[in-house]
Amino acid sequence: MMPKLKTNKSLYKRLKVSGGGKLLRMKIGRSHLRRKRPKRVKRTYHDTMALHPSDVARIKKVFPV
Q: What domains can be seen in the chain, in order of their start residue?
């Protein structure tokens, strides 16, 4: 019998899976020091981005979908 596959809980909190199966992440630089940035820049932090293809293969090993 194979051992149970452990999931990486920190990745589950940071990533989402889209309807098409892509891995999505939030943009960086959202947590602090945002006061001095213009409003149009701060608005772009609301968006999600798809992971880079070179990272997807590595992350799928610890992120069973």
A: 9-60 (4.10.410.60)
pTM, two decimal places: 0.69
Which phi and psi angles does 24 have, rounded to 5°? Answer: -115, 145
∠ CA(52), CA(55), CA(57), 5° rounding? 120
pLDDT in tens, 10-65: 888 889 999 998 999 998 888 888 889 999 998 988 889 999 999 998 888 877 65
Instruction: Give the helix ranges, DSSP H, for 1-65.
Output: 9-14, 39-43, 53-60
Q: Residues near 50 by Cβ (< 8 Å), separated by ≥ 6?
A: 18, 22, 23, 24, 25
Given phi > 0 = left and psi -120 to 50 = alpha, else beta, which region is 33?
Answer: left
